[in-house]
């Protein structure tokens, strides 16, 4: 399957096909140098296959995890591009999960005011959510995605075969974003989780359905609101509190999806929906994070890029498939963060 995300000044092709990462040039013409940015968690056979497809490519590997999204790593990559005489017409290719996509995209967006960018997401998290939409960023002083940009890849290759080596925890971590998609906009995604969670695997036809539906849902929202001024904000369901939890635990102890899942449960006021979410997350073995430091959370949220003075837009869901924006006082979040799930 292929579709295009149509934006004001750009287009992103999204190719969803098993095995597509092994013959990239059948889909897209790479007519320049290629820097492949990846991490030490990506299987060597995937990295070797990708770099072998290019005559003029270099690969730079960084340490996996959120710590890679630092100014030090960002600077190193820019210096490497400069040393290798890359031009604006050359390519940065992200080969990895959401961290690599954010980092490589931010590098591409700023090198010589923007060079060409392509992405091969290799985790459920990046395939379902972060690979499209154009949000690219690095972290600052423990605050996630504090320095960033909107910059879209020319093409995204979504290949579920790259998920085969994911640990179960990583596999489910990324699926949280699809549960979110079902909650905020597409009830059919939520129903797939309710009815088929035990059957989900790389070889399950339900997985490709979930990935495709989630990406199409996000495409439709991003096309309406590229720079997150209105409806795109609903994609942040669970994220404001989730990002605060990530920061409290130094972007390390818990994964992004796990923190977002806890954020969704904490902000959810409808008991029936909260119970349904809790049951799905239990089957996904998502950890419930207890005794979250409320005051630290509030401090991180005040530094959230979505905060405006003492106010912040929180995303709420009273009916599956329909989200809305509630602009509230940040201090009022204490009652949500401090409660027991």
Folded structure, characterized:
This protein is an alpha/beta fold. It has helices at residues 44-51, 71-83, 98-110, 124-130, 168-184, 187-196, 205-224, 239-248, 256-267, 271-283, 294-302, 334-337; strands at residues 2-6, 11-16, 34-39, 57-62, 91-96, 116-121, 135-140, 143-150, 155-158, 307-308, 311-319, 322-329. Strands 1-2-9-6-5-3-4 form a seven-stranded mixed β-sheet. Strands 10-11-12 form a three-stranded antiparallel β-sheet, with no helix packed on it. Strands 7-8 form a two-stranded antiparallel ribbon. Strand 3 (34-39), helix 1 and strand 4 form a beta-alpha-beta unit. The longest helix is centred in the middle third of the chain and has 20 residues, at 205-224. It is globular and about 55 Å long. The model has no long low-confidence stretch (mean pLDDT 94).
| Main pleated sheet | 7 strands, mixed
Give the N-terminus to C-terminus distance in angstroms. 39 Å
Low-pLDDT segments, ≥5 res: none
Element string (H = helix, E = strand): EEEHEHEHEHEEEHHHHHHHEEEH
Average predicted confidence as pLDDT:
94
Briefly note the structural class of the backbone: alpha/beta
Shape: globular
Strand content: 15-25%
Strand order of the largest sheet: 1-2-9-6-5-3-4
Query: Could you estimate the helical fraction of the residues in percent?
Result: 25-40%
Number of strands: 12
């Amino acid at each position: 399957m292929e579709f295009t995300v149509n934006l004001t000044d750009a287009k992103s092709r999204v190719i969803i096909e098993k095995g597509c990462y092994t013959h990239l040039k059948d889909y897209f013409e790479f007519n320049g140098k290629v820097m492949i940015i990846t991490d030490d968690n990506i299987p060597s056979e995937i990295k070797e296959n990708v770099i072998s497809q290019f005559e003029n490519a270099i690969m730079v590997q960084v340490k996996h995890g959120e710590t890679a999204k630092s100014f030090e790593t960002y600077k190193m990559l820019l210096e490497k591009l400069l040393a290798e005489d890359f031009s604006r017409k050359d390519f940065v290719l992200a080969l990895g999960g959401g961290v690599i996509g954010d980092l490589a995209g931010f590098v591409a967006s700023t090198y010589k005011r923007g060079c060409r960018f392509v992405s091969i997401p290799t985790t459920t998290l990046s395939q379902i959510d972060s690979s499209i939409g154009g949000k690219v960023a690095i972290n600052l002083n423990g605050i996630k995605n504090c320095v960033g940009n909107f910059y879209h890849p020319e093409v995204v290759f979504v290949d579920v075969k790259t998920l085969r080596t994911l640990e179960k925890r990583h596999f489910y971590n990324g699926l949280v974003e699809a549960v979110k998609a079902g909650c905020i906009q597409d009830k059919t995604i939520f129903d797939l989780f309710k009815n088929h969670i035990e059957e989900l695997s790389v070889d399950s036809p339900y997985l490709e359905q979930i990935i495709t539906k989630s990406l199409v849902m996000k495409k439709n929202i991003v096309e309406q609101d590229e720079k997150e001024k209105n409806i795109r904000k609903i994609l942040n369901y669970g994220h404001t509190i989730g990002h605060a939890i990530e920061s409290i635990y130094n972007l390390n102890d818990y994964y992004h999806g796990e923190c977002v899942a806890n954020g969704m449960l904490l902000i959810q006021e409808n008991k029936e929906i909260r119970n349904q979410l809790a049951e799905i997350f239990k089957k996904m073995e998502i950890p419930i994070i207890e005794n979250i430091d409320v005051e630290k959370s509030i401090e991180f949220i005040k530094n959230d890029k979505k905060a405006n003075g003492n106010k912040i837009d929180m995303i709420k869901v009273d009916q599956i498939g329909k989200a809305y924006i509630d602009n509230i006082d940040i201090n009022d979040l204490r009652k949500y963060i401090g409660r027991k799930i």
